[in-house]
C-alpha cells in the first residue's frame, strides 16, 4: 500500500512538471506573437506639410515706390516683371514695372474711394473696396477701364483689407480686418475670410474659414519653437481687440497655401486652404512699417508692399526656398 501511495505521488508530481513546462511554452509563444504584432502595427508618423521658406528679414529685392503710391494698399503680379497696384484713395490701377522701377501705366476705373485689394485672374482685374464691393474690369491699354460693380452682403463694418485668388476652387478670397460680424454684433475672438465664387459670380453665404485668436495661439505654440517662432509669440497678444487684423492675403502658386498679412500683430501667417496654421513669420517694423499688399511670382518669390509711414512706400521681394 505504501509503495502504491509513493508511486501515485511521483506520478502526480510528474504531471505537474509537464503542465508547468507546457504553460511556459504557450506563454512564450503568446509573448512572441504579441511582439510581432506590435512591430507590424506601429503608429504611422504624422505627416509634416512642407511650406517652403523665406528669409523674411533679408529681402532679395527692395524698391522705393513713387509718391503716387504712398498709400499703396493692394498688390498683384501681372507677369513679365509687372505688378498691378491700387492705393486707398483713388480709383486707379497702377502698373509698376520692376525692370523700369517705375509706374509705366495709370488707368482710371472708378471714383475716389477706399480701395484695399487687387487681383488678376486671366484677362480680368478685380479690385475690392473696404465695404466688400468688387469692381471687375478687363485688361486693356486705354487710360480708362470700364468696370462692373459686384455687390454682396458685406459692409464697411467688416472692413475688407485683402483680396486673393484660389485657382483650384475658382474663388476670390476676401480677408476681413475687423472681428467677425453677425447680426450687428462683433465676435471679438473671430476673424473671417470670405469667398467670392467666380462661377456663380456671387459671394458664398458662409465664410471660407474663421480664425479664432486664442486657438491660433495654441496652434502657433504647437509649431517648432525656433528663434523665428519666438519672435512671433513675443508680439502676438490674442487678448487685444486689434490682434490679428488681416491687411492682405495671397495664395502661393507652388503649394496652394494661403499667406495672410496682419500688420498690427507684425505677423505673416502660412495657412492651409481650410485655415490651419502651418508656419508664421515675424515682421519687423523697421522693414515692414505698414505691410498691406502681398503677391507671388510664378516661381514662388514673395512680394510685400508697405504704405509710406514717415517716408515713401516700398516694395520688398523675397526668394522662394522650397
Key features?
Neuraminidase, 2 domains, globular, 322 residues, alpha+beta, disordered N terminus, 3 helices, 5-stranded antiparallel β-sheet, 4-stranded antiparallel β-sheet, 23 strands, 39% strand
Describe the structure.
- There is one protein chain.
- The chain is of the alpha+beta class and 322 residues long.
- The chain has two domains: 1-35; 61-318, Neuraminidase (6 Propeller), CATH 2.120.10.30.
- The protein is 18% helix and 39% strand.
- The protein is built from three helices and 23 strands.
- The chain has helices at residues 2-40, 213-222, 227-235, and strands at residues 61-64, 72-79, 82-87, 90-97, 102-110, 115-121, 124-129, 134-138, 147-150, 160-166, 171-176, 180-182, 185-187, 190-197, 202-203, 209-212, 248-251, 258-262, 267-271, 277-282, 291-296, 302-306, 314-318.
- Strands 10, 11, 14, 15 and 16 form a five-stranded antiparallel beta sheet that branches. Strands 1-23-22-21 form a four-stranded antiparallel beta sheet, with no helix packed on it.
- Strand 18 and strand 19 (267-271) form a beta hairpin.
- The radius of gyration is 30 Å and the shape is globular.
- Residues 1-9 and 11-48 have low confidence and may be disordered.
Amino acid at each position: 500500500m505504501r509503495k502504491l501511495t509513493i508511486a501515485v505521488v511521483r506520478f502526480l508530481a510528474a504531471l505537474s512538471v509537464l503542465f508547468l513546462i507546457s504553460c511556459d511554452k504557450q506563454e512564450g509563444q503568446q509573448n512572441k506573437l504579441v511582439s510581432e504584432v506590435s512591430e507590424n502595427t506601429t503608429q504611422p508618423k504624422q505627416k509634416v506639410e512642407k511650406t517652403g521658406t523665406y528669409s523674411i528679414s533679408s529681402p532679395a529685392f527692395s524698391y522705393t515706390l513713387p509718391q503716387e503710391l504712398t498709400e499703396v494698399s493692394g498688390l498683384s503680379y501681372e507677369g513679365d516683371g509687372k505688378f498691378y497696384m491700387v492705393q486707398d484713395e483713388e480709383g486707379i490701377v497702377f502698373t509698376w514695372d520692376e525692370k523700369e522701377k517705375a509706374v509705366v501705366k495709370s488707368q482710371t476705373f472708378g471714383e475716389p474711394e477706399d480701395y484695399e485689394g487687387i487681383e488678376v485672374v486671366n484677362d480680368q482685374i478685380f479690385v475690392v473696396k473696404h465695404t466688400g464691393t468688387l469692381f471687375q474690369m478687363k485688361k486693356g491699354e486705354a487710360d480708362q477701364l470700364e468696370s462692373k460693380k459686384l455687390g454682396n452682403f458685406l459692409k464697411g463694418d467688416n472692413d475688407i483689407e485683402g483680396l486673393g485668388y484660389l485657382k483650384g476652387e475658382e474663388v476670390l478670397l476676401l480677408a476681413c480686418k475687423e472681428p467677425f460680424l453677425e447680426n450687428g454684433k462683433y465676435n471679438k475672438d473671430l476673424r473671417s475670410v470670405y469667398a467670392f465664387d467666380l462661377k456663380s459670380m456671387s459671394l458664398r453665404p458662409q465664410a471660407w474659414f474663421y480664425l479664432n485668436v486664442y486657438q491660433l495661439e495654441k496652434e502657433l505654440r504647437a509649431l517648432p519653437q525656433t528663434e523665428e517662432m519666438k519672435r512671433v509669440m513675443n508680439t502676438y497678444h490674442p487678448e487685444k481687440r486689434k490682434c490679428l487684423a488681416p491687411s492682405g492675403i495671397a495664395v502661393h502658386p507652388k503649394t496652394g497655401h494661403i499667406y495672410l498679412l496682419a500688420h498690427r500683430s507684425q505677423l505673416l501667417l502660412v495657412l492651409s486652404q481650410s485655415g490651419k496654421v502651418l508656419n508664421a513669420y515675424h515682421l519687423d517694423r523697421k522693414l515692414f512699417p505698414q505691410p498691406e499688399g502681398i503677391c507671388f511670382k510664378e516661381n514662388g518669390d514673395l512680394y510685400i508692399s508697405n504704405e509710406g509711414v514717415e517716408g515713401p512706400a516700398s516694395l520688398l521681394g523675397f526668394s522662394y526656398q522650397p
